[in-house]
Amino acid sequence: MRDVIQIIKELIGSWRVVYRIAKYDNSQIYANNYLGDFWHFADPLLQIGIMVLMFAVRGGDQSNEHASGLIGYVTWITVGMVTFFFMQTAMLKSAKSIQSQVAMLSRMNFSLSAIPMISIVGEFRRYFTMLSLVLAGMLFMDVRPSMYWLQFGYYFVAMVVFLYALSLVTSTVTVLIPDFYNAYNAALRVGMWVSGVIISVDSPMFPYILSAVMKLNPLYYVIQGFRETMLENPVWFWQDSTHASVFWGITLMMLIGGAHIHIRFRNRFMDLV
């Protein structure tokens, strides 16, 4: 736990610099394009649009208790895809963050443990913009806010803590074993299909044992949590204590392990890169 406490202190001390660098990186990505920020949102909008057309036009998933009818399924799938797209992009960028930025940031008075957080924070603007569009669509389709929406903050914090804990592991391993990133990237491509983004894991097409295993996936916990916050048949997060305990247990183990290997190897990052 000593390593975790040290990492948290470094992250808090570097927070303002993290925000400024993330903001600068966002402004530079499409600075030379005529359409500018349009391209920042074009990819997720296209993917969401394709999935909605492919699956929602069938009338939705009749076995999904959280998404009755076509409108219910459209809102269900868009909430899941916006969340998954943010997590997937943040996971990929943060995994390669130290390898790509350590040479520049090591010359600054900046904690290396905060580098992965830059990639996560950098995706906030796109995530909240896309989420705002989804919420506007939900209100247009007569989905009304409720008291359950207050727990959005809990799932958002859970998502960010999980992403950072995972990034400490993946960003360090990517430096130590460069081939790891390619395998990690390939694994995340199937993440949409094993995280309940498109088809509910409670669907009859999944055997009970497989469904139970899929529900242990931290990505599923976050995605399903946002859905159970904003859509039909909402559930308070403390009512599912089993999956909450599994999620926070996995996150804590990754945070402890990630903090340990990061601190152990970070003095060698420059040599390894």
TrEMBL record:
Where this protein primarily resides, as one coarse class? Answer: membrane
The molecular function terms in GO held by this entry are: ABC-type transporter activity
Q: Which residues form the ABC-2 type transporter transmembrane domain?
A: 20-231
Query: Which Pfam families has this protein been placed in?
Result: ABC2_membrane
Q: Which UniProt keywords apply?
A: Cell membrane, Membrane, Transmembrane, Transmembrane helix, Transport
Specify the protein's topology with respect to the membrane: Multi-pass membrane protein
Spans through the membrane: none
- Example GO BP: lipopolysaccharide transport
Query: Record's superkingdom?
Result: Bacteria
> Could you name the Gene Ontology cellular component terms for this entry?
plasma membrane
UniProt-listed InterPro entries: ABC2_TM (IPR013525)
Q: State the compartments where it is located.
A: Cell membrane
**What is stated as this protein's family in its record?**
Belongs to the ABC-2 integral membrane protein family.
Q: Which PANTHER family match?
A: CAPSULE POLYSACCHARIDE EXPORT INNER-MEMBRANE PROTEIN CTRC, INNER MEMBRANE TRANSPORT PERMEASE
| Protein's name in the database | Teichoic acid transport system permease protein
